[in-house]
Design goal:
The structure is a single chain. By secondary structure, the chain is α+β, with helices and mostly antiparallel strands. 17% of the residues lie in helices and 35% in strands. The protein has five helices and 14 strands. A six-stranded antiparallel sheet has the order 9-10-12-13-14-11, covered by helices on one side. It has a four-stranded antiparallel sheet with strand order 1-8-3-6, with no helix packed on it. Strands 2-7-4-5 form a four-stranded antiparallel sheet, with no helix packed on it. Strand 9 and strand 10 form a beta hairpin. This is Cyclic nucleotide-binding domain-containing protein. It comes from Triticum urartu (Red wild einkorn).
Length: 244
């Protein structure tokens, strides 16, 4: 795979989609490819974690620690785009990961782990404070994969309720962080349901309605007090620029 293909693949990994494009491109330069035969250990319980491992092709089986009771052993299978070795609470693997089929993985060595913890969704080298007010409003806090939190800043436009343009912009920012960086906004449809409270954070839940080669569709629900106040349906398309 060439660098562009690696970048496109990494852009499909849910863990990485919330990162700015600059981080994904740097990760694409740092990852290494490793291959395994069926039955090979990809990771052994108790051995050091050497970095983030992302399944490129094939299947691997995860087995629980040896001291886990048989009835509680949560064995399961990892497939393409699945990953392990990220967010561990210790420096050693807690489970065995064994190749079920011929297996290929991308491995991001531990020394590049800082690329997974960028400070903004816009650029890996910048901080939100260096951006314009509009960019600060669109900056969201990631709570979980596909779940983000936004705020109404004191300087933001208000009309005794959350400004509709803010809801559209923040929901679109949330949706854009769940598709690969090569897909750009194609169309959107917004539905305003109830007024929003300026003094409360807004939770944005992204639903992955469709992922195709050229198009992707997302549904975003904005919530306060457990109620859906706004819904955005947005489609993304791969844009190929031709130089004449």
């Amino acid at each position: 795979m060439d660098r562009e293909q690696v970048t496109e693949f990494l852009g499909q990994v849910p863990l990485l989609q919330c990162l700015p494009g600059s981080s994904i491109r740097r990760i694409a330069e740092a990852v290494q490819v490793k291959h395994y035969e069926p039955g090979d250990y990809v990771a052994r319980e108790g051995e050091p974690v050497d970095g983030l491992c992302i399944i490129l092709d094939g299947q691997a089986e995860v087995s629980a620690p040896a001291n886990t009771e048989e009835a509680n052993r949560p064995d399961y299978v990892l497939n393409k785009y699945d990953y392990f070795g990220y967010g561990t609470n210790s420096s050693v693997h807690q489970v065995n990961v064994i190749a079920v089929t011929k297996l290929s993985c991308f491995v991001l060595p531990s020394q590049y782990g800082h690329l997974l913890q960028t400070k903004t969704i816009w650029n890996a080298e910048e901080t939100p404070e260096s951006h314009s007010l509009m960019e600060q409003i669109l900056h969201l806090e990631k709570l979980e994969v596909d779940i983000f939190r936004g705020f109404t800043l004191p300087e933001a436009p208000t009309f005794n309720q959350v400004f509709g343009g803010q809801l559209i912009g923040q929901a679109l920012a949330a949706a854009s962080k769940t598709v690969d960086c090569l897909k750009l906004v194609h169309s959107l449809h917004a539905i305003f349901l109830i007024a929003g409270d300026n003094n409360m954070p807004i939770i944005y839940q992204v639903h992955r309605e469709r992922d195709g080669t050229s198009f992707a569709t997302r549904k975003v629900e904005a919530k306060q007090k457990g109620l859906v106040m706004f819904t955005l349906i947005v489609s993304f398309q791969v844009i190929i620029l031709k130089v004449v």
